[in-house]
Amino acid sequence: MNTFKDLGLNEDLLHAITDLGFEKPSEVQDKAIPILLQEDTDLVALAQTGTGKTAAFGFPMLQKINVDSRTTQGLILSPTRELCLQITNEIKQYGKYCKGLNVVAIYGGASITDQARAVKKGAQIIVATPGRMKDMISRRLVDITKIEYSVLDEADEMLNMGFYEDITEILSHTPEEKNTWLFSATMPKEVSVIAKKFMDNPVEITVGNKNESTSQVSHEYYLVNSRDRYQALKRLSDANPDIFSVIFCRTKRDTQKVAENLIEDGYSAGALHGDLSQNQRDLVMRSFRNKQIQMLVATDVAARGIDVDDITHVINYQLPDEPEIYTHRSGRTGRAGKTGISMVIVSKSEVRKIKSIERIIKKQFEKKEIPDGMEICEVQLMSLANKIHNTEVNHEIDKYLTSINDLFEDSSKDELIKKFFSVEFTRFFNYYQKTKNLNATESSRDREGGRDYNKSSNDSRYFINVGRKDGYDWMKLKDFLKEVLELGRDDVFKVDVKESFSFFNTEKEHQEKVLAFFTDFKQDGRFVNVEVSEDRGGGGRSRGGRRDGGGGRRRDGGGDRRRGSSDRPRGERRSSGRRSDSGDRNERRSDSGNRSERRSAENKSGRSDRDKSEFKTTHARPRRSRR
Predict the structure, then answer these.
(1) Cβ atoms of 106 and 176 closer than 8 Å
(2) Is the CB of residue 317 less than 8 Å from the CB of residue 245?
(3) H helices of 208-320, where?
(4) What domain range is 537 assigned to?
(5) Domain co-membership, 240 together with 312
(6) Whole-model pTM above 0.70?
(7) How far is 24 from 30, CA to CA, in rounded Å?
(8) 437 is a domain residue
(9) Does 471 share its domain with 603?
(10) Is-contact 43 153, C-beta < 8 A?
(11) Which of 420-429, 490-499, 609-618 has the lowest mean pLDDT?
């Protein structure tokens, strides 16, 4: 492999590289830097997170711009504030011997006036998030009409976050003859589209295979019941005493909740998600980099700014909605030539997803068991013994040895060792001695025929008479059902919200519970009705779609969610539209009579109506500190 000098970098950059301690270029740097230095060309580079992509475009840009000019010549777009700041800091380090260089970060959550003032002083390179950049362009606070180089970093993630229109708008203000360099970890169809639209015959380089996970990371999954997910997380942490990890959750709310529970249970943890202010996020990241936080709980979006080389484990507390996102998650560990472990905690309904991910990353998962309490006690005990064995003696203790020896004069060596280690061992032993086995049994159907990202399984689909007009989208309805039914987050799926009704799925084992709960259930004085639907669902959640007219019922199975009312269940339709025949009217009258009977029976039995607020609390768990 070449050295950095062989790549053609100038002395100022080589001097900075020496200061940073870089010895040899990574594969993506070795491939990209010579091309970008020698040619004025567009480039698509596909490489995993942690392979040194910032330096791959940073060094060529620094060498090619004119630092004597105050004109903005380079624009780098990144998906998150953290990544924007990280790239800015790295570019500044690379160019610290380039006199006159000014690199400015533009991102939301900070003063736009201060950022505009920094740009006005003359910024040869601007690093920006799409939203804030678009805002500054519209206010005419920044001029990018003369840039020569544009970089789309983490392009796949920017598109996943919905920045396509913003990127299009921003690039429309740049000259056509500029060079565009696109860097991405994966190559979904959307990235291909943006490459065709904004780039002219780009050179493409690939490190590894497209969408493939790095060979430095091993992949493991642990099968538990949904209700035991948090307990499994704690055991995995306790079984790895030196863990330095990122824990991924799907939503901001789950991220905050898991972090708060870990802190309450005595773990060194912190949360990173979009609801935090910029100062809070900076504080959390600073603590994590300094290893004051051992377990960082994060959403996928917020974690894009994490650039820490020593992460030992990535824990997927919940699998992502899109299997490609797993590649980004696992790329947080195994960086800079080090090895790492990516763990996945799954319920039975999710096991099939593992196969989907294996096909994408071209790696096999190893099924492992959640350790039992006594295994964890042994691991913790030996970890403490090794720390003591490797501790250097502080001779300031010598003056206290006489008093200590007098205290333990009657104790033998074995007694002294037992007492010393029991201080730590007893805490774990008392906590774990009566805990249950958390491992769930996996059947062949779970692995081969269970539910994956695209296929249906042995589950039940339900009709419910609430929809968008009642203020629900798919996420709000899923959260409501999860909480009132006291199910795990992954136990409710394929939520499909229409205008005045919706559909959702659970495993068949929950069917009796779901139907029983919604018998005579009222919310805000209105009956909420749930019935089993014959339709199997379309394998995804609907973002909209119109409701079709109501006459005929199709019974051909399938899963086309665009049918609207055709996938309503047989039987009464409490929230359906106009009925087109007498049979429907009879159903409605019958339904009305049934409601009257229910209300009468309810009054006779003296039961009060349950309302929504009664069920808005989550399942309480015992607060027991492991420390």
Answers:
(1) no
(2) no
(3) 229-238, 252-264, 278-289
(4) 456-615
(5) yes
(6) no
(7) 9
(8) no
(9) yes
(10) no
(11) 609-618
